[in-house]
Structure formats: C-alpha cells, structure tokens
Amino acid sequence: MSSAPSKGENTPHPASSQKLFNYPPAVEHATIEGVSNVEKNVQGTRATLDKKTGDIAAMFDTVAKRYDLMNGILSLGRHIYWRKQTVAAVDAHPGQKVLDVAAGTGTSSEPFADAGIDVIAADLSEGMLEVGRKRRPDMTFVRADVTDLPFEDDSFDAVTMSYGLRNVADYPRALSELYRVTKPGGRIVVLEFSTPTFAPFGKVYKEYIMKAIPPVARAISSNPDSYVYLAESIIDWPDQRTLAHKFAQAGWQDVKYRNLSGGIVAIHRGFKPQN
Asked: Are 151 and 99 in contact (CB under 8 A)?
C-alpha cells in the first residue's frame, strides 16, 4: 500500500525528484527487554572521522551494554518508529534470507527473526555481538566487515543496515559489497541519519547533536567520548540525494529515499537488477 506522509513526518526534500516509495504493511515490532551485563570498561576509546576499522570496532565494544538504551534516549523514542518503517521497507517473508549488517546487539534483526524469516545479524564489534548472543541465543550472529563480507555471491534476498553505513570510511565499497551478496531482484534498505529538510530546524538539530548528546552520554555511557564521534559523524554525513547517487554508482537500480521525522533520518532503498 502507499504510505502517505503524516503532518510533520516523511516530508521529501523539496529540491529532489525522489518520491516517497511504496511500503508494504508494517511488520509488528517485537520489543525485547533487558540487556546483557557484558561491557568492556575501556575509557576514552573513540573513533575519529578517519573511521579506521579497528577504532570503530573497539569503540562499539566499549558501549555495547548501553548502546540500545542510548539510542532510545537520544532519539527521544523515535527509533522504534524508524525501525518499524525500515522493516516494512525490507518487506521480507518466511522462506527468504536477510542479511542485517551493523546489527549490533541484534535489535534491528529481531523483527525478522520473530516473523520466521532467516536473518543473519552481522557486525564488526565482537562486544556488540556478545551482548546479542546472550539476549537472543536463537538468532545467528556473525562478525563481519561490510567492505569484505564472508558470504558467497547472490546469497540474500534482502540486505539492510541501520545507523552503520556512516561509520564505514569506504562506504561506496560497502554498497558494492552488499550488492555482490544480494540475489538478482533483491533489495537493499539502509536507515541512516540524514539532513533535515527544513533549514532553520536543521540548525537547531545540529546544535542539539553537538551540545546535548555529550552530556547525556557522560551520564549514561561508560565511554562518553564515543558519542562525540557519533555526533560528528552525523553532521559530516552526505545528504539524501548525494547518498542516493552513491547507491546508483554501486549498481543499485530504482534508488529512492524516504525522509522520516523531517529528514533527521532517511531510508534509502534500491534493487539489484535481474540477470
């Protein structure tokens, strides 16, 4: 069915020719309470905008225990809605195979698993995966680098990634690697922070990111410095149209995006052509 934007939500960029894409009925989101007590107590470990793979993995290892909690607080609870829309865009069904990259503790993979879909939760951080395995021993967790995935060509009906693409230095290579492992006719769905479509709000939003996130992180996270990097990475990330162009350059076709919450985040979706 066609998903019409509600007031204040999902407004497309006025300068963009990209339209809201059609969504299937939303998949029910399963809330999993409780977080494993596994967290490495490493203070001051943070990545930089160079985004070296080892630094990114080490940083997420240190925040694994409370990462999901921080997501909820910093998004003011909107992350649940964003995730539901992402699951709906993937439109996976039992019998299909989904790769969820940058899955962290597996919260983004759970709706697929709970719907009887074969999903692999992949992440670079062993600390995040360790928390996920203890929370959901019924799910498959694999340590993987999205720029060099340990899977055969044409393995998945759909690939998806939430809040992870901007942490990859060579993200065009990641898009190409995701293309490689996707079956012909399959799709990619990426949820990522983006550029607010209303300029005055965008200025306020940037101030919120840089001024509000670090104090909250200091109160909750064992590694608050990591959230300084996360704030910087959001501001440094390309806008919706630029990212859509990168998808097309990697071979994805019919690439479109949908703005959520005024462009705070955007969902990009594309398809791998049939042979």
From this structure: yes
